[in-house]
Amino acid sequence: MTKAASISWDDIDPTVIMDKKGQAYLFWGNTACYYAKLKPNMTELAGPIQTVSGLPRYTEAPWVHEHNGWYYLSYATEFPEKIAYAMSRSLDGPWVYKGILNELAGNSNTNHQAIIDFKGKSYFIYHNGGANAGGGSFRRSVCIDYLHYNKDGTLKRVQMTTEGVLPAK
To answer: From the CA atom positions of the chain, what is the Rg in Å?
Structure first.
């Protein structure tokens, strides 16, 4: 059903977000980022598939989250992958590219992310290849570091650590 990419594996890496009105959106894609509204049953599309614009060098792994009235669309960019992001006031866009959020993740060619808020803090969850000595450059070890926002709503670049975060209280 998707036609923006010239590859057969462009329908991967789905993520879902619910807007403030309770409308669910599905985002996904490889080399092209797609989105569509979902019906209340969350298994059927409620409208046409749209292609997201404004995401330079988009590769795969979209993640969408909301914070203080802004929507953030982060995604894997280039190869080996870094994480970049764009911002919008609406899930329908327009999306404005803001830059790199997370650098190359060590000895892993891929870098996929999730962003969550929990007990008053924001967390950036990603992977590197640090814990597994075998498996080549596509191995994945889960990591978590803090995510911080600037006063204007933009994101501060995530500093990868070996320690991770403190236990949430």
So the answer is: 16
151 DSSP β-pair partners: none
The three-state (H, E, C) secondary structure of the chain, written as one string: CCCCCCCCCCCCCCEEEECCCCCEEEEECCCCCEEEEECCCCCCECCCCEECCCCCCEEEEEEEEEECCEEEEEEEECCCCEEEEEEECCCCCCCEEEEEEECCCCCCCCCCCEEEEECCEEEEEEEECCCCCCCHHHCCEEEEEECCECCCCCECCCCCCCCCCCCCC
pLDDT 10s digits, 74-119: 999 999 999 999 999 999 999 999 999 999 877 788 899 999 999 9
pTM (predicted TM-score) = 0.93
Rounded CA-CA distance 80/108 in Å is: 8
pLDDT tens, residue by residue, 94-105: 999 999 999 987
